[in-house]
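Troubleshooting: if your tokenizer reports a length mismatch, compare your output against this known-good record of 128 residues.
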Amino acid sequence: MREGKRTKGMAQNAAQETLARFLSYLEHDPDNAALLRDAADAATLANEPATAATLYAKLEAVDALSDAEANLAGVAAMRSGDQATAQRHFDALLARHPDDSNLKFNLAWSLALDGDTEQALARLDEAT
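Known-good structure output:
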């Protein structure tokens, strides 16, 4: 058990170091979409949802998010407490993928976190 915790801690430290490196690169090239993507991924791995959400917002301002990136941006926003942004991402994705149970669940979860349990329950179906 201790070895697992140490390995997890080492992975967390490596993720933090990677994130710090990408953030330092972004100081010199803040609109570089590839760097923003890498940094957002690193922030997610480093368990830094607020940083990931900020990076996805910056990426969205300079380049279109792929559906996978929009989903990750929504999850990061949800985890950092920005339910309005999370819901915007999930709503847009559901407009393109209306039968995706994962997206329906993520939107329902965000609505519930926002205190709108009635709407959250309305988003759920048998598959979800």
